[in-house]
Write a structure and sequence with these properties.
By secondary structure, the protein is of the alpha/beta class. It contains 15 helices and 14 strands. It folds into two domains: about 220 residues, Spore Coat Polysaccharide Biosynthesis Protein SpsA, Chain A; about 150 residues, no CATH class. The chain has an eight-stranded mixed β-sheet, with helices on both faces.
């Protein structure tokens, strides 16, 4: 049997009640050369019955004897897929339009440098479409991979998983989902693939992303904020190392800033729901030492981290603490003019004035941003 052009992977765990809707949205596609692989992760509901009910030879189902977890399930499907393109869409999501596959293939077949295509989504809550998510542009475009990776590093993961169709060679050459990143494995792959390939973006929201209590995102953000922080930090370090190996020094610099930002905000304390995650100074030092091989880089990140800690204290009008942390930052990088200026203003007793000025500038930026969006 000839291999299909596209393999849809549909992981499913306790989602029998929405599985049919997801698969039917795939079977309705105008482009017909694909397979659908339903991967039942030992669901305790009637998922096997629903999976067997599709009267279409393109639909195949696998049921694991025991629950193997979401990332292993994804990777099982990727290994099983026969198509040149792989589309992973959870059983609780769906395609909104019957032409999305045709549009994606039209771009990717004619642009071999494109590693994956994606689009925004409209979220579903109680089967009602609610808000637009993952929109970064009002027009269709092919974005240079390095530029797209930098957007992902600055903004976090805005690629809706259900919207992503990936060229199979991305997985073959660069790897599948890393099992040690339960929260951020998809963000890591979107960044990694973008360092090596361009990205096709469609501005039309052609998928639905369902929000409910069983969704993986809700589970992790609600109960595992420490995992979220550690996974995010690991992604930044891994992309930093990959970018350095490729000679992308601008990406390396951005990663260093984002790493310092994560360290700084979590040393002070960051709110996740009703909990606050705090990183101790020793944990920071251990993490920094573990991930750096260059003492100069280590000190540069250390200096920026303490500057960010000082900025947080400054914003809280804890001027004495801010002063001490700016001094600590200068110990590791005395050449940064910004730190010198901030210290000088605090020395002049102008802290409240500067805070008020910064708040006002933030209001102006927000007003300008809102006016541009309308």
């Amino acid at each position: 049997m000839d291999a299909p052009t596209v393999s849809f992977i549909v992981p499913c765990y306790k989602l029998a009640h929405v599985l049919r809707e997801c698969v039917n949205s795939i079977l309705a596609q105008s482009y017909r050369d694909f397979e659908v692989l339903i991967l039942d992760d030992c669901s305790p509901d009637n998922t096997p019955d629903v999976a067997r009910s599709f009267n279409d030879p393109r639909v195949k189902s696998v049921r694991h004897d025991k629950n193997i977890g979401h990332l292993k399930n994804y990777n099982y499907g990727i290994a099983m897929a026969r198509g040149r393109y792989v589309w992973l869409i959870s059983a609780d999501d769906r395609l909104r339009n019957d032409y999305i596959l045709e549009r994606y293939l039209g771009i990717m077949e004619t642009n071999p440098r494109v590693g994956y295509a994606c689009c925004p989504a409209i979220s579903l809550e109680n089967d009602v479409e609610t808000e637009l998510e993952g929109s970064i542009s009002k027009r269709d475009t092919i974005v240079s991979g390095k530029k797209f990776a930098k957007q992902l590093l600055r903004a976090g993961n805005f690629v809706i998983a259900a919207s992503g169709m990936v060229r199979r060679e991305c997985y073959d050459k660069l790897g599948a989902f890393p099992l040690d990143l339960p929260y951020a494995a998809d963000w890591f792959l979107w960044c990694l693939f973008a360092l090596h390939y361009d990205v096709a973006y469609f501005s039309e929201p052609m998928v639905n992303y369902r929000k409910h209590d069983l969704s993986m995102t809700n589970h992790l953000t609600g109960e595992h904020f420490a995992v979220r922080f550690k996974d995010g930090l690991a992604v930044l370090w891994r992309i930093h190392n990959e970018a350095r190996a490729l000679g992308y020094l601008d990406v390396v610099g951005l990663c260093r800033y984002r790493i310092a930002y994560q360290y700084g905000h979590n040393i002070v304390g960051r709110q996740f729901g009703k909990s606050t995650f705090l990183m101790t100074v020793q944990e920071f030092e251990d993490s920094l030492h573990e991930n750096t091989i260059d003492p100069l880089e280590e000190n540069a990140i250390r200096a920026r981290t303490w500057e960010i800690v000082a900025d947080r204290c400054f914003a809280r009008r804890e001027f004495q603490r801010a002063r001490s942390y700016y001094a600590l930052s200068r110990k590791y990088d005395g050449a940064r003019l910004a730190i010198t200026v901030k210290q000088a203003l605090l020395g002049l007793g102008a802290g409240d004035v500067v805070v008020a000025l910064r708040d006002r500038m933030a209001e102006i930026r927000e007003t300008l941003a809102n006016s541009k969006s309308h």
